[in-house]
Structures are given as structure tokens and as C-alpha cells.
Amino acid sequence: MMFNRRNVKSEIDAVTNGHEKSKNFLTQDEISQLLTAAKKGRHGIRDYLCLLMMYRHGLRVSELISLKLTDLNLSQSRLWVNRLKNGLSVEQPIAGDELRAIKRYLAKRNDTLPWLFISERNQPLTRQSINYIIKRSAKLCSISPVYPHMLRHSCGYYLANKGYDLRLIQDYLGHRDPKHTVNYTRIVGARFESLW
């Protein structure tokens, strides 16, 4: 006898509209608080830069920890973002405050390791390390829950709120399919500003 094993949860998830999901990004004020909190601690310069780059470039954790020093072009203020998960890799500008933070971090290093972000054991940072940095920083500034992918979403929502078009956001985040980008432009508050 066969039993009908319907997965009710997946059916509900499939029906759930994007507008009904909980907020999965941080506001500008929350990002500022998180970045300030990341500066506190033994590795504050590195931790701050990790979170700043994740947010500014919409990096996944795996993309952040795989960054190499050769991906940086400090003389032209550029970063090569090697997108994973079949994303489109692009070169992105590095803003002035971020460039200063990179130089400050690199000035403290005295190794010849290829990775941009390393642990005190001279190994590349791990996913667990990044999760810990984010969790600790969020706890320090009383913002929770915060998980790593929220920084990528926060980048998308920031760009959409600034009024950038879907195609630009899609390319910046490395999405091959616009359906992954459209959520940012669909639910941003800025598009409702002039209604009343």
C-alpha cells in the first residue's frame, strides 16, 4: 500500500508571495550600527572590513573568503568580484572609505599569503568565522537575527532604494536571471514615496 507523502510545508512555501516574507535586509542605520560594532574586538580592523565589503559588493560568504590580494587593484580603486553559483563576475569600484580600510588592514599584515582575509593562524577565514563575526557584531548592537546573506540583500535593497534600474542591480550582484533581482525593486519603499 502506498502512502501519499505530500510535503505540505514546501507547498505552502511555493504559494507564499514575496510580499509575505519577513524582512531579510538591514536598513542603512542598522548597517552603520553593525559596522561600528564589528570594529570592537581584537580583530576589529579585519572584521569591519569583512562586513563592509560583504555589504558594499553584495558578496556571499564563499565569495568573501575566496578573495585574493590579486583581486585588488588599489592604484585604480577596483575589486575583481569572482561570483560563485554561476554568477557573472565583474570589476567593481572601491569607495574612498573602503579603500582606506583595506590599506589600514593590509598595513597590519606581515605575511605573503595570497588570501585577502586570514585568521590569526595564517589560514583563510572560514564560513564559521564569518558567521561568528556577524553574530557577535549583531549582538553588540542589539540587532537580531542577522545572518550573512542579509548583507547581500541589504546591498540590493540599498541600490533599489537609490533608484538604480533592475539591469544595473542584476549585473552588480552577478545575477544571471533577473527574477533573482526583481524582489529588490518590487518591495522598496522609495517607489511609494510620492503616492500621498
UniProtKB/TrEMBL annotation:
Cited InterPro entries: DNA_brk_join_enz (IPR011010), Integrase-like_cat_sf (IPR013762), Integrase_catalytic (IPR002104), Tyrosine_recombinase_XerCD (IPR050090)
Source superkingdom: Bacteria
Keyword list, A-Z: DNA integration, DNA recombination, Fimbrium biogenesis, Transcription, Transcription regulation
Tyr recombinase domain segment(s): 21-196
UniProt entry tagged with the keyword Transcription regulation: yes
Assigned protein family: Belongs to the 'phage' integrase family.
PANTHER family cross-referenced by the UniProt entry: PHAGE INTEGRASE-RELATED (PTHR30349), TYPE 1 FIMBRIAE REGULATORY PROTEIN FIMB-RELATED (PTHR30349:SF62)
Stated name of the protein: Tyrosine-type recombinase/integrase
